[in-house]
């Protein structure tokens, strides 16, 4: 049964590439803007509320990609990465205001503080884990004050600015919203202090509930209230058997060596608490991938970040999402391989079970006689057949 307040359902632009098999170059799709455009226009038409654009060394730049996609979409919102420590807060504020104006107020910001020290070093960031969050707090204070119209003087541990200002304001007031995902205490403190929506990766409901309760309490202590979202992959099919076959197929070409290398990277090279929690769900073992009813951790065998998928029929997946919604989740950021085809499956199969409207859907009139017609055409076709 659909919830009284349907979820906000976003999709994903695979700016690092796409394909039908994880760990394989077979049926691989390169990260090309023409393909991003296909996905963005499809999900805009299908009724998704927005898209997440990832960030990192292996991704096309999320800001430039979003700017291009904003000009060829109508309703879609764009969740792009805001990287404290990588750019200056004043420059980021100017970028934010410009993209918010270009998109006519369809910009959202995903605060990304770190995760892989080796990659951060390539960007000139050498601070240890908790100090990165201290730096991010200063960054967001300057950034927020500029976007709300202040002339800013600030002298902190990591930043100093004098008489900084924005001459061109954003469309959204007081500023575009901040989304944030972080499982460490330092990350949760930053979320409670400075952001509007806290994101978690797709852990079993008990773990998600614990994280939401902790962040909610931290926000309440600061006189604030946050919204909550979850990042998940989706494998939705008309039957449960089809769904699990699709899940098995997705990882059918991953070798044990690839799994071992990926898990070593996640647990030894990265200092992300959230990534360690993802890896611990399955421990790199193929026989431990179902970590909760319909929650499958196969994607996380080789993919960093979000590593779990909801697998099943539309009714089963809707039931699982209702469990997360009961914990306080109001936003889902989904994805699936390949992202173009799976966007259609999610919209056509799952959205009706969730009570999500599809404003771009077009229905054939009942009077049209063709292979999809029903209603008025059916009696005529039956008569002709007799």
From TrEMBL:
<dbReference type="GO" id="GO:0008726">
    <property type="term" value="F:alkanesulfonate monooxygenase activity"/>
</dbReference>
<dbReference type="InterPro" id="IPR050172">
    <property type="entry name" value="SsuD_RutA_monooxygenase"/>
</dbReference>
<comment type="function">
    <text>Catalyzes the desulfonation of aliphatic sulfonates.</text>
</comment>
<dbReference type="GO" id="GO:0046306">
    <property type="term" value="P:alkanesulfonate catabolic process"/>
</dbReference>
<dbReference type="Pfam" id="PF00296">
    <property type="entry name" value="Bac_luciferase"/>
</dbReference>
<keyword id="KW-0288">FMN</keyword>
<comment type="similarity">
    <text>Belongs to the SsuD family.</text>
</comment>
<protein>
    <recommendedName>
        <fullName>Alkanesulfonate monooxygenase</fullName>
        <ecNumber>1.14.14.5</ecNumber>
    </recommendedName>
</protein>
<keyword id="KW-0285">Flavoprotein</keyword>
<dbReference type="InterPro" id="IPR019911">
    <property type="entry name" value="Alkanesulphonate_mOase_FMN-dep"/>
</dbReference>
<dbReference type="InterPro" id="IPR011251">
    <property type="entry name" value="Luciferase-like_dom"/>
</dbReference>
<feature type="domain" description="Luciferase-like">
    <location>
        <begin position="8"/>
        <end position="330"/>
    </location>
</feature>
<dbReference type="InterPro" id="IPR036661">
    <property type="entry name" value="Luciferase-like_sf"/>
</dbReference>
<keyword id="KW-0560">Oxidoreductase</keyword>
<keyword id="KW-0503">Monooxygenase</keyword>
